[in-house]
Amino acid sequence: MERYGQIPSFEGTLEGNRVIWETEGELVYMEPYGKNAIRFRSSASLHIDTSLNWTLLEPETDGEAKAVIKEDRAVIQNGKLCAELLGDGTVLFKDNTGKILLEEEWLDKRSGTAPQRGARVYDHISSEAFRTDLFFAADPEEHFYGLGQEPNDCMDLKGASVELFQKNTKCTIPYVMSSKGYGFIWNNPSIGRAELGTNHTRWHSEACRQIDYLVIAGDSPEEINQSFTEITGRADMLPEWAAGFWQSRLRYENQEQVLQVAREYKKRGIPLDVLVIDYFHWPRQGEWKFDDKYWPDVENMCRELQEMGIHVMVSIWPTVDPRSENYDTMKKKNYLIKAERGISNFFMIMGPQGIFDATHPGARDFIWNCAEKNYLDRGIDMFWLDEAEPEMRPYSFENVRYYMGNGLEVSNIYPYYYAKAFYDGMKSQGKKEIVNLIRCAWLGSQRLGTVLWSGDIPSDFTSLRCQIKAGLNTAMCGIPWWTTDIGGFFGGDPADPSFRELLIRWFEYGVFCPIFRLHGKRLPYDTVNKQKDFDAFLPSCGENELWSFGEEAYEIMRGYIKLRERLKPYIMEQMKRAHELGTPVMRPLFYDFHLDKRVYNIGDEYMFGPDLLVAPIVREGERKRNVYLPEGSDWTDAWSGEVYKGGDWTEALAPIDRIPLYLRDHARLPIRE
Hints:
The protein is α+β, with helices and mostly antiparallel strands.
């Protein structure tokens, strides 16, 4: 950026490879972190808490990083990334060629008059907390990917403004990868905003003690992603059974209903690996156990299902009914989230509910002890961690008190600790294959055995289109295990031809998601008023099994389950790469073809592993679509066998039973029987 006057001399010190710089009202630390990465922290409190890593790991360094102080700046070189802290406080990052990757935006450096705005802005809230802003200069040619799961229909996030908080269908993971060759971690669990605009890039926090971010450089998205996942962690190796078909609906009312569904799948010879028991199988919320009236013999139910090769998952909610057996103990021990002002009931379903405080170590032990005794010991080996934001009414973050701090400061980290309660508990019992489902995530959630799903989404083609982009941006944030409710959650009449078409198209797409799971609240809905009838039995919705949607849909979906089974060896190869290197299983075309600028904003087709391009049908009535085949490869239509050169568009035929698929460079995958 243009500067006014000469850069002043640098007045800072070195502590090993950490640069320390101080000016009136601000203290700055900048240092190498892992491979090809540099961490920046600053505060107006004049204190940097070096123990405050949140969920970051401390990766090994190769010992080659070096920091030096020159006349007007401090310079840190760490592999392929160089950072400079100038004598006037400006920070910029360069690659090995000297190209500027990222530079702070100070609107000017005039003297003798009030500056328009600094690059780092602190607005005092309390003795230790500040409302902060961090500004970087905008590059009109730059493209961004990541920031977690946003149903905003955006692939390239350049120009987007994204709120940083957790809600149902929205998941904040504060990381972006840039087309300029760097990744950026906003290491801050506070409520905030990311503006990736054309006038500036802005990272805003409503309340934090210090600005904390990391920049990672690399020659390719794969190289950047490897360094990123060394810092945030990688998923365990997915067990092969978890790569199969998952059956779910809202909800199975009792034990016999679950067994009938499982037996029918077995009778029809349809592979089924996971069967899900959804919410309100418990007596009251916060009792984390089966209601014996409807589930009289859980041990034998699980035994029969396991003999059929089916793993059983149960829903867990963090809500705690004041009438439940655990409420008084949890309240007394401060295991529940509290209101800063007023009554500490944050959710209303079957009466007012408290919420367990996942940031409290004692609360995590408490909920796990209940789950171990009432579920794990009875044969349940998977947990669905629902309401993981946690969902509140209203979302008044400033009025929430967690064990870790006020809601404005720490709310976004809640789903990480919710998952940690169950992951640590299962590990303590010697479990090696941990696969739990969760509705929200944060930096590092992938190392806690979690499958992220995209929440309670509508059953329509617009939502299907948005899910593809949401899943791809999530994949760029280190989350390799991801899924949607096939067919959408809200709505869907099994007898409606339009919904059957949507379901088939979504099912075809689901085959090429990391986790393959059918779920939804199908018509007809129940009529119980859950807000007033506190003790009402909660009935189920319409059927949602493979045979519930007519013969044509059944035959098509059964064929795609067989395809998923044939692809399992290929899928498991990709899961191994995710475990060992952090490589996402599904990823935008940008990840593999970043040199081809035509792929930068394509979000309705993607790579499933390195060899398979998937182009879902996302519009009702569509029986063909245009597909871009990236340059630098040959592409084979997996259905017809026709070969195309990359770097151009082609028209793909897509009858109702076919999703467009292309094999890269003559790869051989068993698409056709």
